[in-house]
Amino acid sequence: PEDSNVSIEIFDVNGRLVETLINDNLDAGYHEIQWDATLQSSGLYIIKMQSDRFIDTQKLMLIK
Predict the structure, then answer these.
(1) In angstroms, rounded to a whole number, what is the distance separating the alpha carbons of residues 10 and 44?
(2) For the segment 10-57, what is each residue's pLDDT rounded down to a tens digit?
(3) Cα–Cα–Cα angle for 19, 24, 25, nearest 5°?
(4) What's the pLDDT at 33?
(5) Cα gap 13→6, rounded to integer Å
(6) Residue 11: what are its φ and ψ, rounded to 5°?
(7) What Rg, from alpha-carbon coordinates, does the chain have?
(8) How far apart are CA 24 and CA 52, in angstroms?
(9) Which of 27, 22, 29 is nearest to 7 (CA)?
(10) What local confidence, expressed as pLDDT, does residue 45 receive?
(11) The predicted structure's pLDDT at residue 61
């Protein structure tokens, strides 16, 4: 664990950027981010987390 620049972005299934949840330098440790998706429609989304040495993507199903 170390301080690094972190970016968390939400994309729709067509690859369009829906929202950037965070794009900032974070201290090492545990953090919690919440996505207010009240203006988004139900469906499949992709969440991408990227830091200086790490990239991960996950599928997210939004059901209203």
Answers:
(1) 10
(2) 999 999 999 999 999 999 999 999 999 999 999 999 999 999 989 999
(3) 155
(4) 94
(5) 22
(6) -120, 150
(7) 13
(8) 11
(9) 22
(10) 98
(11) 97
| Cβ 15 vs Cβ 62: under 8 Å | no
pTM of this structure: 0.87
Residue type, 22: I
Q: Which of 56, 16, 18, 57 is nearest to 37 (CA)?
A: 18
- Residue 50: both structure tokens together: 């990227």
Both tokens assigned to 13:
């299934």
**E strand intervals along 1-64:** 4-12, 17-26, 43-50, 55-62
CA atoms in the 13 A half-sphere facing the CB of 50: 7
Q: What pLDDT band is residue 1 in, cutting at 50, 70 and 90?
A: confident
Tokens 């499949």, located at residue: 44
Residues in the chain: 64
